[in-house]
Description:
Number of domains: 2
CATH architecture of the largest domain: 3-Layer(bba) Sandwich
Largest sheet: 7 strands, mixed
CATH class of the largest domain: Alpha Beta
Structural class: alpha/beta
Order of helices and strands: EHEHEEEEEEHEHEHEEEEEEEH
Distance between the termini: 27 Å
Shape: elongated
Amino acid sequence: MSEIKKEIIIVGAGPAGLTAAMYAKRANKDIILLEPNLVGGQLTWSSIVENYPGFESGIKGMELAEHMRKQVEGIGVSIISSKATEITQQDSSYLIKTEKDSYQAQAIIISTGAFPKKLNVPGESDYIAKGVSYCATCDAPLFKNKIVAVIGGGDVALEEALYLSEYASKVYLIHRRQGFRAAAVLEDKVKNNKKIELILDSTVESIEGDKVVKQLEIKNKLNQEKRTIELEGVFIFIGLNPNSELVETLVKTDEDKLILTDESMACSVKGVFAAGDVRRKEYRQIVLACADGAIAGLSASRYINENCN
């Protein structure tokens, strides 16, 4: 296994990582970007992005990700399709091992994003890819003219309920509280969509079926009444867990394993920066992930200028 030296290694090619790469490259730094999966990260799950500046009619998530990828590669950034498996500190540098090669870097930027939280109810794991999904963009066409449910009350849950309504004959939107955490404009759209039925103050008890999902058992939190819903798809959007295990023994994290950073995106260890959904922050939006990435790219570049030359 060869060892390749770079000034900055960026781990994760979602909006944060892609933007970090663009800013670090424009600062004339020698960098690479590691991403084992689809470039764009969670952005590629979004059917339509309506709140990203510059696209007045919105843009498909996959299309926006492709714009970002082309822009970054167009200025000479190499995106390596390889998974980082270990990061260790070596004096004033870092060793990043991947499935193929090892890299030595003076600074690293962790932009590995997050993955969907599970309900952890009976039947959920049994029916993944058999009616249970965490990505409406990926699976909505499979449920054309069928009945589905969306679980959650944030922006993503409401966005995906609206997207699913373009395919499904009916969409139940189930949320454990009366009020939503989503933007008011999304809430208005959902409430005015005739295909979407709101089931509030309710939780999922179990997901049931035979070879595929057939029904959902829910319980009203106020009166404890239980209800069975016949359907064929369950889409779960209740939040995210950070992909921070790669550095959880290297840098400080909070109780949810979100990486702690300062305003310059610097972590608790010198030369390590984090950006996007993997770090602790109040809001999670594409434009804010890009902002994180820009700051991280600039900060990592400044760190090298001040400490490594």
